[in-house]
Specification:
By secondary structure, the protein is mainly α. The radius of gyration is 18 Å and the shape is elongated. It has helices at 2-11, 14-40, 44-72, 83-110.
Length: 113
């Protein structure tokens, strides 16, 4: 456990790590709010629009928190990022969020209140 803490303290920029945590916190609050809108919406079309909107928030949260934390890492080796893989990772995060939120909304829809 101390190895992980040492790695975070010694090998990461503390300001970027704090920024990653702030991004995670604020976008999580947005995701919860948007999910509530999706849950309370009337009609399948509106629910689908809110689901799509709500899926982007946690997807971006996952991706941006991870990406900023990766940028915070101070490596002695040169690093680079592939644009296509970076965009793909963003799309995967949004898609996984959509599946999770869709399952939540479907469960809430078919269970009694």
């Amino acid at each position: 456990m101390s190895h992980i803490f040492d790695c975070l303290v010694a090998d990461h920029d503390p300001w970027l790590m704090a920024l990653a945590g702030l991004i995670c916190l604020l976008s999580s609050l947005a995701a919860v709010s948007l999910t509530g809108q999706a849950r309370d919406s009337q009609g399948d079309r509106h629910r689908l629009v809110w689901l799509a909107t709500a899926s982007v928030a946690p997807g971006l949260a996952i991706w941006s928190t991870h990406f900023v934390a990766m940028l915070a890492y101070r490596s002695v080796l040169p690093m680079g990022y592939d644009l296509a893989l970076t965009i793909l990772s963003l799309l995967v995060a949004v898609a996984v969020s959509a599946v999770g939120l869709g399952a939540y909304l479907a469960r809430r829809r078919w269970l009694p209140p």
